[in-house]
Amino acid sequence: MRRRLTYALAAPLLAAAISLVVSSIALLLVGKSPATAYRAMWESLDSADALVTVLNVAAPYYVMGLAVALGFKMGLFNIGADDQYRLGALMAAAVGAAVTLPAPLHVLLIVVVAMAVAGAYAGVAGVLKVTRGVNEVVSTIMLNFIATGITAYLLTVYLRDKRVRLQSETKSIKPSGWLPSLNRALGWVGYHLPSGTVLEGFIVIAALTGVGFYLLLSRTRFGFDLRATGANPWAARSSGVNANGMIMKTIVLSGAIAGLAGMGPLLSEIHKYGDTFPTALGFTGIAVALLGRNSPTGIAVGALVWAAIEQASRGLAQAGIPPEIGKILQGTLLLSAVVAFEVVRRYGQAAEVREAAAKANAARPGQPLPAAAS
Amino acid sequence: MTLTSAPSGGLGTERPVAPEAFAEPSYVRPLLFAFGGLALLSLVRIIADAPELTGGETFIAAIGAMSPILFAGLGAMFSSRVGVVNIGLEGMMIMGTFFAGWAGWHWGPWAAIVAGAFGGALGGLLLAVVTVTFGVDQVVAGIAINLLAPGVARFLAGEIFANHADGSITQSPTMSHGISQFTVPFVAGGSFFGWTTPNPLRWLDEKRWFLVSDLAAVGRGFTTSLAWTTVLALVLVPLSAYLLWRTPFGLRLRSVGEKPSAADSLGVAVYRMKYIGVTISGALAGLGGAWLAIDVRAYNENQTAGRGFQGLAAMIFGNYRPAGIAAGAGLFAFAQSLTQRLGTAPVRALFLLAALAAAGFALVLLYRRRFPQATGTLVLGALALTYYLSANTVNNQIVFITPYVVTLLVLTFASQHLRPPAYEGRPWRKGDL
Questions:
Q1: Is the ipTM of this complex over 0.85?
Q2: Angle at CA of residue B234, ends B343 and B104, nearest 5°
Q3: Number of domains in chain A
Q4: Do A143 and A5 lie in a common domain?
């Protein structure tokens, strides 16, 4: 037990150390002091406003991380999360702006549209994989570009607000379709945020999605089948798991959650789809899922770290440090994390083999087993 | 960390190894397809009265636009052939644009080519270290490189370019001169010792005869105003085919991607071959980046615009072989030059092309007695025809997605003919089977 904990902690610490060292070297190479940089980063996180921003930014990252992790859990790479959420957000914004409903129903309608569209689009990759054996990595990369084209086409031709001339964007969703902020709820428990600081309601949705993800994977038959397929597809298949059905369900659900992730910006911040809508959320989701090793708590840490680095980089320019060092920090953190996980996993495996061999040798002297394989 | 658990981790389809595993690449099929496609295009051009569709200018633009995708596609091939899926091509290409922009600013375009290849090779080397030495999942590592590279480029650009008058964090100072261009004399009107030779291809092209003029237009594309970087891309097609299929070194490279344990038992240095293949892959992607930077004489942020992924698609479209990759890259470039250079009239004609192609394909399917598929194809063809007859203009976005849709269709319907390297996508440690 203690060893498992050590292994679980060793990899992230190793990764953090490597990424800090690499970023420090990069800073030293351009003649900047790493100490100044890290102090400036720390200071730009050290306020209630900054922490609220981190939480707001991390919430959609977290949901997107869950969407990608669901696929990863059974060996499916949903690289297309990036297009699924944008297509879903566009359709949801268009529908949401076109109707007026009582507040909860309005929000619900928008969310359902986004999840349905994103899930259905992800389903295309699922159908191709199940019926024709097309690898989902390639098909989702192609579908990414196709969705970019479809989104731009729909937006510029059919769904754009004709009154806006310079940009193409949908009409704004009416306030009944906005997600309320958490400021008032915080007030009830006696905590008042500084004025101008908004803790977004989407955080609750993100947390609930995380709980749902955990329960789905650990407490349902679907979750068991999914983990079994991920661990050993052949064993799962021979024990009666319908492999094709699992692929379809997982990829559609992954797409639907990706669609939900896009609701963070849509319902809490921007309220319309256009050029200002955040892009590349899907790739951030992949990074966050990898950092968090596909566990709901790990992904939460990953999303917070990712958002915190982004927020921390904002204060760097004032300190005379290029803020792009944040991107390098993120990139090297991800790369060294995946390497560290693999190295630690292999080291742990070798240690287990050594230990088992030692035990067996002690029980049966005279015929020593080889100390360690692989 | 085993994220892929598909029976074969390759990018193509999950099928057993076909006997032609080590067959030599055939140029007959791609050429036949290209010729048939051109005949169809020519027919469409005449019916739809859209002379620009296959005009010389279209192909001259297309051959240029094809080059960076071709570099990336060949890069993807070198990596796949040693069994490593290179999703990180886009990131390596970005490194290529940055290094090329920097070197080109100091020493001109030829230095930019070398530096671009070097920058991309650095990215390839990183992928090799992570996937071959540490055994990290290849798709994961590629995604990480794609996330890292733009950050590195932007960081370095902010430090190196932003302090100069005509540079910024998103752009390098411009190169003092571009790369020289070359037009073949006596064929496409190039100059011969200062004498402007006649241009028979353009004469043929302007006649707009069925097929003959279109062939001449393609010929013009391959012979008119070729930047030397484009020539390099075109020369690399036969060169890499020769290297991979006609030399002992190529055989070793490919054996590592097919069955590393067998290669290992015969004394091939598997790890080293994988490193070489993936590094070459990065260098080629970097050359693609250099092409882009030299084309506009500067590094620009987001210059690659997904061409690394297009190269990956071109590789799959082209069945992991140089000639096929060239055809795939050409398809992407043709669509690009149609959207960028011309209005929507020739684009609308493409829907007639789709309808005709669907009709032909349906006939083949009927002949093979695959009735459900034939019906589906006919319905799609009818839809395309309806669109052609009803729409006056076509949104550029529809053309933008066409090559991706075609690649998906190839993956879906021609996957029996795709033959990815058998060990593609799986990590291999010495001692593994």
A1: yes
A2: 85
A3: 2
A4: no
